[in-house]
């Protein structure tokens, strides 16, 4: 019996649903959760009356939650000749539902967990597939007593929206269409005729002229759907009395915008497609004639096109490996994103259990099974996010300049008043109606000035917006240029292959034709788009130039008005106007600073999200490559050299421990906290009095950012699960919690500051750029705060920067040297297991390398921080880390490569594990060894951090860690309590 293996992508049993999670965790999930391929479920409907009348037997059997066995009714059990060629098939899906499954069960197991993603800006597609009469419309639409997926999804969607409505502004719109005989009809406005499909500049599919109805609740949508459904083409066929002869697509679009007067707030756009496909059918069986037959042919053609796309996409390498012809039918064009692009997709295949439907069921199962191998790349749709912090810094510096100018004017007036008391006398002698006139004139001028000021601000904002548009166009253009470049490269490769006599390896498209000769349609489209985008860019540039001219003119007018002031108003009134202007400018500066702050944060998060996504993709690719190569080596009996084997074991171990996943999780936690906490303080630097601490040490900190590590970060266990009850001591009770968090790398890209020398901008710019030092504060348990680091301390740390991994590696080697071969007989020779970069010369070269790679960012060892702030503890990092840290590595399972001791988990960065190529995230890196969390800088008398019961505990993979005497520093440090020298 051929069994077809698949991986399980169904939601983990017992894991909390998004709604049950803490809000921060929700955010985390929504950012990190990526479904690598469609979730495919199967639903088997009950036998219907016709089938029973025909005497059909049940041949589709659900086995467990994921397996279905389809028996061949034509098989003769007595036929020994065919005994080994059974047509019985076993298929594994993410979920299998039998005739007893309720609508709710189907919904909860397949769709529910994706609903929250839609409101966070992810695209989601649900489609029902199967032969005619298999139950697709029943699953999607349902009946009043048992509503289907449409209503349940929408109810949950609106509920989720309601729950987050305080912070977000939503607008939901829907459209409902059918594809009948390859034409698109608007089911909400059937009189609009046939509609066209178009691809916008972002590559997403749009339907020109479709009716978009704004709705506010699920019931309203259901009413519209019922109305639309009446318009849907339905006819009785031999297999179904109410057969849908078209593909119906319900599209719900959720626009989400953060509340508040943010200029360039984030706008998320989530699209939910719910597709009830027309039933596939066999012409011979349906006995359709004439119109019905033509419909059937169209349905089958579009489903065939869909099948071809599924086949092409599920080939190894997916859409990159071979050309996927989405353009073959309207259906595939519409579902392009759902299948191979940016969408979380759920396919629910339907079959009848009847023996009379064996062929349909078999082909449906094969079809659905193929869909499981499709890979999609899911990303969140974020719009209008401005990255132009530099623009804001310009505006701020302009405003600051104006404030300075106005203030100096006021001061000048004050001086004049003091030196010429006659001014006062003049004022006193002003007659009453002249005073009234003057007041009116004053009001007029004040109104004019404020109007001019507002106008200027509007123009400045529009300029920022235009600049953003420009950037978006630029990004779009890069995307298309990349498509073209990819194609050109592919073409070159093809030529090279042809030249080297590998012509027969040329890729073929879905129809088996060679694609080497002609350009694929998306490349042609990309070329068209580039031209359009160029024209758009020119238009934007012209608009920008016009606006800049108007702004310059407005500025000139305002300054003329200011000059006229002294002639038109009395000195006291003029003072008032100037003060008012000053105040207005100050408020605007504050406002703009807040916006810049907000943008900076968003920028940071976006970049981090992007890095995570890319990194995740890269990691998956590496895993595939490694596994593929290992398989190849195994198949061909090639044995890898020992060092390579060692590295592979280390790699597998990392994978098992989920180190990288934890890293991703922590980054996401960090970003959640960044969203809440202050990131940068753009207000003027604190004075000595206001900050309450001497300025001496901080004056030279150009970037006064304060980072607070979220408590949550400290309260995560090794699996990333949050434990609200965990306390430092409680955590100590758990071996895993002793594992120090992996390196926390925060990507901080200095904003593109176009005019760094502009007066006023300089201070903000310097604060935006993490170029010199950071004030680092960790949130200690039980409210203890480690002291802020002074600039001097930071400088020292920066000077003495060493990768903690190098220190740890070097220590291990030293300990090994001191212990002089105390490894057991299975241990390889020290040279075998010693970390290659443990030698001082190697250290130096690595350090140089690291320094080169990371410049101008900083990696500093917090161990030094501890040393600095904990002078009474002889060597905090060693006395507080697991004793196993200081042990020579023990051999792993089979004994060739040493088990990485607990200490190795203190190695904060990927680069610390091996000296092979590592993934570097250039920019600012913080390394937080566990000692940081476990130290008590303020109270050196704290009891030893490693309780007795932990010392002999097991590691995360269940291996025994050898215990070491806790209070035998001489043993720990090779007979000397001296601090080991750092590698140079
Ligand atoms: N799980 C089920 N439980 C009870 N009845 C069902 C179930 N699935 C389908 N049915 C019934 O079977 C009949 C045909 O179902 P349905 O119209 O949903 O099929 P379909 O796949 O949409 O067909 P077509 O492609 O021809 O439109 C309907 O009367 C429906 O009520």
TrEMBL record:
A Pfam cross-reference name: Kinesin
UniProt keyword terms in alphabetical order: ATP-binding, Cell projection, Cilium, Coiled coil, Cytoplasm, Cytoskeleton, Microtubule, Motor protein, Nucleotide-binding
Highest taxon above the source species: Eukaryota
Transmembrane residue ranges: none
Compositionally biased residues, Polar residues: 234-246, 856-865
Annotated Basic and acidic residues bias: 493-508, 820-829, 840-849, 866-877, 948-958
GO biological process, one term: microtubule-based movement
GO molecular function: ATP binding; ATP hydrolysis activity; microtubule binding; microtubule motor activity
Domain Kinesin motor: 37-374
PROSITE patterns: KINESIN_MOTOR_1, KINESIN_MOTOR_2
Residue stretches in coiled coil: 389-416, 544-602
Binding residue positions for ATP: 130-137
Location relative to the cell: Cell projection, Cilium; Cytoplasm, Cytoskeleton
Region: Disordered, residue numbers: 227-247, 493-519, 675-737, 820-900, 935-984
Gene Ontology cellular component annotations, sorted alphabetically: cilium; cytoplasm; kinesin complex; microtubule
Principal localisation: other
PANTHER family in UniProt: CENTROMERE PROTEIN E, KINESIN-LIKE PROTEIN
Functional description taken from the UniProt entry: Plus end-directed microtubule-dependent motor protein that regulates the length of motile cilia by mediating depolymerization of microtubules at ciliary tips.
Family: Belongs to the TRAFAC class myosin-kinesin ATPase superfamily. Kinesin family.
Protein name (record): Kinesin-like protein
Species whose genome carries this gene: Mus musculus (Mouse)
Gene: Kif19b
């Amino acid at each position: 019996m051929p069994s077809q293996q698949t991986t399980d992508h169904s939601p983990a049993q017992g894991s909390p649903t998004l709604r049950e999670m803490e809000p921060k965790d929700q955010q985390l999930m929504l950012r990190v959760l990526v479904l690598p391929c469609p979730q495919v479920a199967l639903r088997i409907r009950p036998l219907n009356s016709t089938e029973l009348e025909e005497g059909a037997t049940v041949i589709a059997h659900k086995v467990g939650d994921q397996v279905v066995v389809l028996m061949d009714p034509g098989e003769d059990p007595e036929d020994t000749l065919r005994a080994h060629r059974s047509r019985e098939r076993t298929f594994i899906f993410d979920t299998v539902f039998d005739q007893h499954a309720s609508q709710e069960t189907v919904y909860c197991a397949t769709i529910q967990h994706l609903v929250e993603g839609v409101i966070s800006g992810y695209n989601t597609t649900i489609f029902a597939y199967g032969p005619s009469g298999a139950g697709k419309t029943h699953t999607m639409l349902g009946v009043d007593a048992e509503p289907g997926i449409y209503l349940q999804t929408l109810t949950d969607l609106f509920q989720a929206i309601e729950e987050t409505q305080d912070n977000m502004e939503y607008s939901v719109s829907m459209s409902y269409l059918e594809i009948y005989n390859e034409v698109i009809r608007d089911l909400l406005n059937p009189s609009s005729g046939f509609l066209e499909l178009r691809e916008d500049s972002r590559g997403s599919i749009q339907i020109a002229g479709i009716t978009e109805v704004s709705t506010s609740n699920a019931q309203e949508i259901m009413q519209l759907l019922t109305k639309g459904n009446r318009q849907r083409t339905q006819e009785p066929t031999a297999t179904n009395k109410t057969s849908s002869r078209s593909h119906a697509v319900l599209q719900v679009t959720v626009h989400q915008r953060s509340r508040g007067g943010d200029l360039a707030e984030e706008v998320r756009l989530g699209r939910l497609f719910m597709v009830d496909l027309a039933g596939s059918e066999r012409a011979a069986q349906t006995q359709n004639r004439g119109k019905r037959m033509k419909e059937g042919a169209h349905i089958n053609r579009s489903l065939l096109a869909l099948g071809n796309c599924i086949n092409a996409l599920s080939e190894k390498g997916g859409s990159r490996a071979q050309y996927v012809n989405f353009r073959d039918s309207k259906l595939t064009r519409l579902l392009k994103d759902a299948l191979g692009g940016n969408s979380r997709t759920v396919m629910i295949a339907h079959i009848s259990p009847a023996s009379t439907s064996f062929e349909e069921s078999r082909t449906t199962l094969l079809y659905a099974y193929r869909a499981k191998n499709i890979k999609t790349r899911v990303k969140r749709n974020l719009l209008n996010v401005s990255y132009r912090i530099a623009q804001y810094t310009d505006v701020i510096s302009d405003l600051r300049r104006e404030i300075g100018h106005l203030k100096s004017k006021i001061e000048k007036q004050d001086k004049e008043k003091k030196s010429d008391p006659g001014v006062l006398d003049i004022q006193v002698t002003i007659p009453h109606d002249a005073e009234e006139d003057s007041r009116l004139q004053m009001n007029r001028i004040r109104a004019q000035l404020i109007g001019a000021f507002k106008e200027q601000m509007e123009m400045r904002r529009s300029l920022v917006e235009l600049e953003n548009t420009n950037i978006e166009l630029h990004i779009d253009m890069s995307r298309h240029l990349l498509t073209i470049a990819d194609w050109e490269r592919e073409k070159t490769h093809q030529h090279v292959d042809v030249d080297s006599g590998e012509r027969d390896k040329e890729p073929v498209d879905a129809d088996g034709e060679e694609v080497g000769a002609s350009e694929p349609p998306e490349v042609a489209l990309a070329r068209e788009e580039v031209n359009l985008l160029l024209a758009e860019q020119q238009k934007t540039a012209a608009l920008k130039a016009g606006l800049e001219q108007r702004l310059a003119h407005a500025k000139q007018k305002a300054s003329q008005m200011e000059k006229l002031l002294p002639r038109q108003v009395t000195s006291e009134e003029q003072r008032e106007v100037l003060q008012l202007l000053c105040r207005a400018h100050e408020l605007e500066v504050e406002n703009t600073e807040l916006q810049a702050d907000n943008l900076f944060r968003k920028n940071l998060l976006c970049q981090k999200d992007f890095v995570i996504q890319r990194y995740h993709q890269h990691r998956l690719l590496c895993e595939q490559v490694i596994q593929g190569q290992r398989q190849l080596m195994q198949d061909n009996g090639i044995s890898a050299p020992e060092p390579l084997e060692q590295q592979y074991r280390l790699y597998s171990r990392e994978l098992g421990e989920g180190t990288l996943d934890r890293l991703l999780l922590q980054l996401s936690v960090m970003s959640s906290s960044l969203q809440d906490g202050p990131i940068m303080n753009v207000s003027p630097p604190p004075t000595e009095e206001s900050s309450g601490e001497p300025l001496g040490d901080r004056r030279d900190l150009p970037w006064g950012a304060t980072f607070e590590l979220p408590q949550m970060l400290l309260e995560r266990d090794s699996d990333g699960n949050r434990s609200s009850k965990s306390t430092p001591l409680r955590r100590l009770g758990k071996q895993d919690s002793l594992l120090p968090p992996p390196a926390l790398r925060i990507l901080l890209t200095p904003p593109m500051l176009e005019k760094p020398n502009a007066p006023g901008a300089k201070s903000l710019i310097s604060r935006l750029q993490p170029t010199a030092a950071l004030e680092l504060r960790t949130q200690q348990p039980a409210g203890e705060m480690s002291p802020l680091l002074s600039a001097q301390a930071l400088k020292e740390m920066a000077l003495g920067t060493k990768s903690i991994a190098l220190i740890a590696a070097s220590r291990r080697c030293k300990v090994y040297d001191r212990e002089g071969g105390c490894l057991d007989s299975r241990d390889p020779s020290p040279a075998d297991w010693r970390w290659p970069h443990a030698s001082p010369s190697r250290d130096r070269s690595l350090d140089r390398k690291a320094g080169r790679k990371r410049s101008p960012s900083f990696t500093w060892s917090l161990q030094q921080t501890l040393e600095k702030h904990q002078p009474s503890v002889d060597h905090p990092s060693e006395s507080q880390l697991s004793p196993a840290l200081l042990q020579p590595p023990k051999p792993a399972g089979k004994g060739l490569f040493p088990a990485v001791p607990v200490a190795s988990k203190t190695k904060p960065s990927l680069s610390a594990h091996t000296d092979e190529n590592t993934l570097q995230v250039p920019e600012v890196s913080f390394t937080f060894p566990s000692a940081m969390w476990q130290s008590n800088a303020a109270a050196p008398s704290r009891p030893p951090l490693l309780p007795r019961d932990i010392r002999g505990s097991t590691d995360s993979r269940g291996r025994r860690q050898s215990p070491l005497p806790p209070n035998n520093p001489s043993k720990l440090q090779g007979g000397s309590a001296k601090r080991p020298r750092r590698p140079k």
